[in-house]
C-alpha cells in the first residue's frame, strides 16, 4: 500500500484518460518488488474525484483508492505535504497545522485500511508505505488482527524536539505501532522514533524492540502475535523498529548503461551542450528539501569569482515538476527560475549556457544517458530520506568514472562514504568540493567509484525488500531478528 500507484491517471483536454508512470523514488523502488510478488498494490490513481476500477499495469494488480478534490487538498497537499513533509524534513519550510487537514488524513487512512482489509487473504502480509499512511497499521490491525503488517517510512523521522511540535503526535505513534515491523532509512531515524515512543507513550524499548502493553480487558487481546511478559510482569506485544536502507534495481541501470543507443544519446547530450570540458548534473523533484538553491548559489559564485569558466563547465539541472498546487512549491519554482535566469544572464555567452535548466520529468533511458554524460553528479539535499538518484548515478557508471558530490543529510551518505561528502549549508565547502570533483585525477575517480559501485551493486532493491519481508515473515512466527540490516551503524 502506498499513497501513489506506480501509474498516474492523466486526463487530457479532450477528456481522454491515459496512464503515465508516477514520479519519485518510492515507485522506482517498489515496482520491481511488486512485479516479483503475486500481490495487489493499493493506492491512489493520481487524479481526484474519479472512481477507478481495479486493473493490471505492467504485470501488477492494482486496487485504486479514490480521493475527492477536497481530500486531495486536505489529505495529500495539506496534511501530507504541507504539515508532515516539512516537519519530518527538519522544518526547512514552516509546517502548517490545520485541524480539518488532520480530519481528512484520518478519513483517508481509514479508506486505505478498509480497502486492504477487503483485499487481503487470511494471514496475508500487508506492507504499508510512507508518511501519508501512518495511521493505517493500527486501523488495519483493529479490523484484521490475523494480518502480518509492515510499515516503511521513506522520509526521515525527525528528532523529538521537532516531532513534538505535531499536535497529533500521540495518534501518529499509536498508528505506526499497529505494525509488526517498522522500517526506516537510517539508524538515526529508527532511534528518533524509539525516543518519541518512550517520551510520548512511556513504553519500554530494548534495542530495536518496542514493548507495547496489551489491554487485557480488550476481547481482541488474545489474538496478538509475539505476546510476551515484560520485566514488570505485564503482557506486552513486541514491535521491531529498525533501519532498512532502500536501494535501486542496480542491474537494470547497468543494463541500460551498456546499451549502445543510450551511450550514443549520452554523447549527443554532450554535443548539444557544446562539448564542455565538464558537465555537472543535478536531478531532483523541484522540492525545497533538495538544496537546489544552495547548489546554484555555489555554482554562480564560482563563475562570479572566475574560479570556473562558463566555456569549460556547464551545470545541467533537471527539476521535475512536483506538488505544484502547494504554495511553498510554487514559491520555490519562482525562486529557482529567477536564480537560473540571473546566472545565465550574468555569465552565459551566445555559445555557452551556464545552467541548462529543465523543468520536466524524464523516462529512465534519458536519465541514464544524462548520468553517463555527467562528469560530476551533485546531490546537495538539505534533508532526504535516501536519495535514489545518488545510487542510480553510481550504478550507471559501468565505466567506473564520474564523481559523486553527496550531502551528508541524504540517507544515501550512510552507505556511500567514498563520495565527496558535503554540508550543503556550508557554501564555501560546497564550492571547494565542486572544484575538487572537477579536478580529481582519473586514478582517484576510479578508486572511489569502484568502492561506491560495490556498495550499490551488493545492497540493491531486491536485497532491501527481501530483508524487510524476511523480518516481517519471521515476526509472523513470533521471532524478531535483533541485528540491524546492512548499514553503517553511525
Ligand atoms: O508522490 P509525490 O508527492 O509526487 O512525491 C514523490 C515521492 O517522494 C518521496 O520519496 C521518498 O522515497 C524515496 C525512496 O525511498 C527516497 O529515496 C526519498 O529520499 C524520499 O523523499 C516520498 O517519500 C514518496 O512517498 C513520494 O511518492
Ligand atoms: O525526470 C526525472 C526525475 C527523477 N526521476 C526518478 O525519480 C526518482 C527520485 O527518487 P529520489 O529518491 O532521488 O527522490 P524523491 O523524488 O523520491 O524524493 C529517481 O528514481 C529518479 O530516477 C525520473 O525518473 N525522471
From TrEMBL:
<dbReference type="Pfam" id="PF00982">
    <property type="entry name" value="Glyco_transf_20"/>
</dbReference>
<comment type="similarity">
    <text>Belongs to the glycosyltransferase 20 family.</text>
</comment>
<comment type="function">
    <text>Probably involved in the osmoprotection via the biosynthesis of trehalose. Catalyzes the transfer of glucose from UDP-alpha-D-glucose (UDP-Glc) to D-glucose 6-phosphate (Glc-6-P) to form trehalose-6-phosphate. Acts with retention of the anomeric configuration of the UDP-sugar donor.</text>
</comment>
<comment type="subunit">
    <text>Homotetramer.</text>
</comment>
<dbReference type="InterPro" id="IPR001830">
    <property type="entry name" value="Glyco_trans_20"/>
</dbReference>
<comment type="pathway">
    <text>Glycan biosynthesis; trehalose biosynthesis.</text>
</comment>
<keyword id="KW-0808">Transferase</keyword>
<keyword id="KW-0328">Glycosyltransferase</keyword>
<dbReference type="GO" id="GO:0003825">
    <property type="term" value="F:alpha,alpha-trehalose-phosphate synthase (UDP-forming) activity"/>
</dbReference>
<dbReference type="InterPro" id="IPR012766">
    <property type="entry name" value="Trehalose_OtsA"/>
</dbReference>
<protein>
    <recommendedName>
        <fullName>Trehalose-6-phosphate synthase</fullName>
        <ecNumber>2.4.1.15</ecNumber>
    </recommendedName>
</protein>
<dbReference type="GO" id="GO:0005992">
    <property type="term" value="P:trehalose biosynthetic process"/>
</dbReference>
Amino acid at each position: 500500500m502506498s499513497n501513489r500507484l506506480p501509474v498516474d491517471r492523466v486526463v487530457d483536454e479532450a477528456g481522454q484518460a491515459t496512464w503515465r508512470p508516477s514520479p519519485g523514488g518510492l515507485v522506482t523502488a517498489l515496482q520491481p518488488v511488486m512485479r516479483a510478488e503475486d500481490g495487489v498494490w493499493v493506492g491512489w490513481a493520481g487524479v481526484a474525484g474519479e472512481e477507478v476500477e481495479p486493473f493490471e499495469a505492467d504485470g501488477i494488480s492494482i486496487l485504486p483508492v479514490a480521493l475527492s478534490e477536497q481530500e486531495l487538498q486536505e489529505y495529500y497537499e495539506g496534511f501530507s505535504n504541507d504539515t508532515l513533509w516539512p516537519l519530518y524534513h527538519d522544518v526547512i519550510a514552516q509546517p502548517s497545522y490545520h485541524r480539518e487537514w488532520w480530519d481528512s488524513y484520518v478519513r483517508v487512512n481509514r479508506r486505505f485500511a478498509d480497502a486492504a482489509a477487503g483485499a487481503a487473504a487470511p494471514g496475508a502480509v500487508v506492507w504499508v508505505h510512507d508518511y501519508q499512511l501512518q495511521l493505517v497499521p493500527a486501523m488495519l490491525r483493529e479490523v484484521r488482527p490475523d494480518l502480518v503488517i509492515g510499515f516503511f517510512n521513506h522520509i526521515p523521522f525527525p528528532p523529538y524536539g521537532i516531532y513534538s511540535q505535531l499536535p497529533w503526535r500521540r495518534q501518529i505513534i499509536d498508528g505506526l505501532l499497529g505494525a509488526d515491523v517498522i522500517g526506516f532509512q537510517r539508524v538515526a531515524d529508527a532511534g528518533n522514533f524509539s525516543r518519541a515512543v518512550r517520551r510520548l507513550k512511556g513504553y519500554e524499548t530494548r534495542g530495536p524492540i518496542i514493548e507495547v502493553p496489551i489491554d487485557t480487558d480488550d476481547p481482541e487481546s488474545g489474538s496478538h502475535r509475539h505476546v510476551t511478559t515484560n520485566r514488570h510482569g505485564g503482557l506486552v506485544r513486541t514491535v521491531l523498529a529498525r533501519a532498512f536502507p532502500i536501494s535501486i534495481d542496480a542491474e537494470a541501470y547497468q543494463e541500460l548503461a551498456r546499451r549502445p543507443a543510450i551511450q550514443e544519446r549520452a554523447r549527443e547530450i554532450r554535443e548539444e551542450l557544446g562539448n564542455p570540458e565538464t558537465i555537472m548534473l543535478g536531478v531532483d523533484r523541484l522540492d525545497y528539501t533538495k538544496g537546489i538553491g544552495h547548489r546554484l548559489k555555489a555554482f554562480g559564485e564560482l563563475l562570479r569569482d572566475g574560479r570556473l569558466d562558463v566555456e569549460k563547465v556547464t551545470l545541467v539541472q533537471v527539476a521535475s515538476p512536483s506538488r505544484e498546487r502547494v504554495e511553498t512549491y510554487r514559491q520555490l519554482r519562482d525562486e529557482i527560475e529567477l536564480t537560473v535566469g540571473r546566472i545565465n544572464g550574468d555569465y552565459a555567452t551566445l555559445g555557452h549556457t551556464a545552467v541548462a535548466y529543465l523543468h520536466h520529468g524524464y523516462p529512465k533511458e534519458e536519465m541514464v544517458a544524462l548520468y553517463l554524460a555527467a562528469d560530476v553528479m551533485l546531490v546537495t539535499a538539505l534533508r532526504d530520506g535516501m536519495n535514489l538518484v545518488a545510487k542510480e548515478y553510481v550504478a550507471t557508471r559501468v565505466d567506473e568514472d564520474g564523481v559523486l558530490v553527496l550531502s551528508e543529510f541524504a540517507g544515501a551518505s550512510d552507505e556511500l562514504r567514498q563520495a565527496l561528502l558535503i554540508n550543503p549549508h556550508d557554501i564555501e565547502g560546497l564550492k571547494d568540493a565542486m572544484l575538487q570533483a572537477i579536478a580529481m585525477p582519473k586514478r582517484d575517480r576510479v578508486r572511489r567509484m569502484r568502492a561506491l559501485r560495490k556498495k550499490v551493486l551488493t545492497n540493491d532493491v531486491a536485497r532491501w525488500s527481501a530483508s524487510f519481508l524476511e523480518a516481517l515473515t519471521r515476526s509472523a512466527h513470533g521471532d524478531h531478528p535483533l541485528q540491524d540490516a546492512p548499514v553503517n551503524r553511525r
